[in-house]
Design brief:
The protein is α+β, with helices and mostly antiparallel strands and about 450 residues long. Among the domains are: about 160 residues, DNA Polymerase III, Chain A, domain 2 (Roll); about 70 residues, 2-Layer Sandwich (TATA-Binding Protein), CATH 3.30.310. It is about 25% helix and about 30% strand. The protein contains twelve helices and 26 strands. β25 and β26 form a beta hairpin. It starts with 6 loop residues before the first strand and ends with a helix.
């Protein structure tokens, strides 16, 4: 299997933070793979209504992308710059921890902005050290103007100094965006806490790293972390990662805690008035969202490329994406729509808004070849089918049994019974389907 390669970007200028008598200005330099987006001088320019709180949230995202929970210092990847999506009246900043197991997003809602959206799009933004230091010094009485891109065209002469900084957009981030969206889309709210209850909850979080799972429980009107799963709970693996939230707790109005159906991911939404801060945590500190394979089952059946391209061309950055409505309006079956959502998600084009329970669109490069390159299990499954390495032994109503040739001459038995699949391979034995289907089950499902 060829290793995934990341995309190198070069910022033609650095993000800057300037102060003057008129107030502070945060100008974010941006860069993406899309030429038409790079040619946009500015996505948004305007005043932030909550500059102090927004600066705290941006610092939390910066802290998240610098964090590592499962890598040694030698394996720690370089600082990753967040991506920002501007459009439809709001601005979203997103990022992953270096180990890809924590997702953080700041949504600046329309009521938090006083400015003009000059264009819509999704791009990487430069989070450099001087800018972060300046953000950290913002006080509650200061004002701040945000510019994503430059407000005006700048002519640079041959003698002018141009600051360039090469950064890397990790393909793991795109894989992570795929899996985290599927987890978020199936999450349900479990608890809603007041500020006081939230602070009290985090006071019960162990100070040291806890290897065993913890559970958020409610007892006598109080919420706390417990090693025991009793009654209605939210499972938290690698609970020490939640300390990323602590600095924002004094500012929240409330905290809503979500859990995925399979209890393999938890979501936290910090309600901050005109802002909301969203966190998603994978099942454990050593598990990154990029390896979960959550979308694989929905990528088994192909769709006409024209349909995927057509839908992609209709959408604008941050625009709500309603699969059910789109299916009804365009006479597309709900099954095909699930596949369409998986295809768009698998190249990072869809996110999910927990509060409004709807998808939103990111304007990222439309590269369908990434569907296979970012999902090697899907690619390997298609190869098994193409090489005729599958023998169907039993096929009857509600039951399918097959033998699949694996690597090194091994053969694996796949059984699909009443839509539940199992395989004798090591992947299934180790994960029991909790990290997506193995390539052998995927291949057999392609022949159902």
């Amino acid at each position: 299997m060829q290793p995934l390669t990341d995309s190198d970007y070069t910022y033609t200028s650095a993000s800057t933070f300037t102060d003057s008598e008129q107030g502070n200005t945060l100008l974010l330099s941006h860069q993406t793979e899309l030429d038409e987006v790079n040619n946009i001088p500015c996505f948004f320019w305007g005043r932030l209504r909550e500059p102090y709180l927004i600066s705290r949230c941006l610092m939390t995202i910066a802290k998240t992308v610098r964090s590592r929970f499962a890598l040694t210092s030698q394996e720690l990847m370089a600082l990753r710059d967040p991506i920002v999506t501007a459009g439809s009246g709001q601005v979203r900043f997103e990022g992953f921890s270096s180990c890809n197991g924590v997702y953080a997003r700041l949504d600046i809602l329309p009521e938090g902005l006083d400015g003009e959206f000059l264009a819509s799009g999704t791009t990487n933004v430069d989070f450099n050290e001087p800018m972060l230091n300046a953000l950290n010094s913002i006080t509650q009485t200061e004002t701040m103007v945000l510019s994503v891109g430059q407000r005006s065209v700048t002519v640079i002469s041959a003698t002018a100094k141009v600051v360039e900084r090469k950064v890397t957009l990790p393909n793991r981030w795109i894989k992570g965006l795929t899996s985290v969206q599927f987890y978020l889309a199936e999450m349900q709210p479990v608890f809603t806490l007041t500020k006081a209850q939230s602070i009290q909850l985090f006071q019960s979080l162990p100070k040291s790293t806890v290897k065993a799972d913890l559970f958020i429980v409610q007892r006598a009107g109080k919420y706390l972390f417990s090693p025991l799963q009793q009654g209605k709970t939210v499972r938290i693996g690698g609970a020490h990662r939640l300390r990323l939230l602590e600095g924002l707790l004094p500012f929240i109005h409330s905290l809503t805690i979500y859990q995925s159906q399979d209890e393999q991911a938890a979501g936290f939404v910090l309600h901050l008035g005109s802002l909301q801060m969203v966190f998603a945590f994978s099942a454990d500190a050593y598990r990154g969202f990029s390896g979960e394979g959550k979308a694989l089952e929905h990528l088994i059946n192909g769709l006409p490329l024209e349909l995927i391209v057509g839908v992609n061309s209709l959408l604008k950055a941050n625009e709500a994406f309603n699969p059910s409505m789109l299916a009804l309006e365009n006479d597309v079956s709900f099954g095909d729509m699930d596949t369409l959502v998986a295809n768009l998600s698998s190249i990072g084009l869809l996110g999910f808004d927990l509060v409004n329970n709807q998808h939103f669109y990111r304007r990222l490069p439309f590269k369908t070849q990434r569907i296979l390159s970012l999902n090697p299990r899907l690619k390997n499954a298609r190869k098994l089918v193409a090489d005729n390495d599958i023998t169907i032994n039993v096929r009857k109503s509600g039951y399918l049994e097959a033998t699949v040739q694996g690597s090194s001459g091994l053969f694996h038995k796949v059984v699909i019974e009443n839509d539940r699949a199992r395989c004798t391979c090591d992947w299934f034995t180790n994960h029991q389907g909790k990290r997506g289907l193995c390539k052998h089950v995927l291949a057999v499902r392609m022949l159902e």
